[in-house]
Amino acid sequence: MSESSSRAGRPARPSAPGTPSKYVDFFLYASAAVTYVTLSIYNKWLLDWIVGPLWLVAWVWGLPALVKLARRQPIRPQRPPVGDPE
Amino acid sequence: MSWAAHQFEVYAVQAHLPKKMMGQVSWFAIFFGDFTPDFLAKFWVYGFNFNGHHYGATKPYQWHRGWPGLGISHTLFFGALCCLGIWAWKHNRAWTIGFLLGFAAHVLTDVNDSIGTMLLFPFSTLNWSLHTWAYAATVKGGKYLDAAAYYSSLGFVMDLFWFFVVLGSWRVLSREFWRTKVVPADPHVWSWLGRLFDERGLLALYRGVFFYGVCRMIAWTTWAHVVARPVINGVQHHGYPWDLSWTGPWWVQHVTLPQVTAWVVLPSALILLGGVYFAANALWERMDSGSIKAIAWRNVRRNTR
């Protein structure tokens, strides 16, 4: 039991399913930056206001989406069934 | 001109909105406001080559910031016209005020280079410049020389300044801030994008402009000082020389337009910045009632058809 949950006197709440791990996020952002900077030093056309932000989206969202695709999991956000508040 | 500073400004403006506007001004509007001046003018500044012929402005500085030219795209007057258009079209204060703040940030930052902007257009076509670094877009040098000059001068310091302003208010990049302050101001746009991306993707999209700013600053600086082998005055250098003196770097050709004296530029720019802030504050409440009236009229028109 974590310190905060024992202080509150109840068990720790498990993290919501699908919540991205901070470490995975950090790795994705850092690797996006390293690859983009390295490639763009020698390929200046990459230093473009459309390519730059899309590079980040492709890396941070696209790579996990590819992994999901390989595992045959849905990529697009799932809508809750009608009438289900969660 | 400024480079990554314009990307960082978007988040700096977003983070330092007046309290009553926090969570209600569109981040996309701030971005498009900050982006519009260069979107309109910069393509022709560098031009392009086709079949061995260069198509572009013969005097890039005149086209970019002067009159005649597209210097009007870098004036507060043009920003105000755009805002009037947005307001007349959508009656949406989140977009109107966001665009105004983003546009003003761009125009006022650009007074730092040696060409500056026509701050008082259409009353005066004189340029206002602080000469902090040299304007370096030339027909021959193109984008590469421009980048090398900027990232060898106080322009680099300017980018760093804005970078640290954003880092100083780092919460603007957090998931919590995006959820509570950015999405509620633009629910339709984010909701539409939410059909395509999950939250991780949406957040990356929001942070993408900052990411681009950081990466282009690092990439251009590295290229200019580590990779490039320029020949300056007949001497080959290992990277472009740094020159952090006023109006540097020394190795670019200095160009100029008719200007007001530099001493009045900083106080005038600060007064104008205060004026934009005051105007945005004053219009904010009035625009709320204006948008309610517009919606009411639209409903009346629909019901009477």
Per-chain topology:
The complex is a heterodimer of chains A (86) and B (305).
Chain A: H1 3-8, H2 22-42, H3 51-70
Helix pairs in contact in A: 2-3
Chain B: H1 5-15, H2 27-46, E1 48-50, E2 53-55, H3 60-65, H4 76-90, H5 93-109, H6 142-150, H7 154-168, H8 175-182, H9 187-193, H10 199-227, E3 231-232, E4 235-236, H11 265-304
Antiparallel strand pairs in B: 1-2, 3-4
What is the tally of beta strands of chain A?
0
The helicity of chain B comes to 55-70%
Total of helices of chain A: 3
Radius of gyration of chain A: 19 Å
Structural class of chain B: mainly alpha
The residue ranges of chain B in which pLDDT falls below 50 over 5 or more consecutive positions are none
Percent of residues in helices of chain A comes to 40-55%
Number of helices of chain B: 11
- Distance from N terminus to C terminus of chain B (CA atoms, Å) equals 51 Å
The profile of the biggest β sheet of chain B is: 2 strands, antiparallel
Strand composition percent of chain A: under 5%
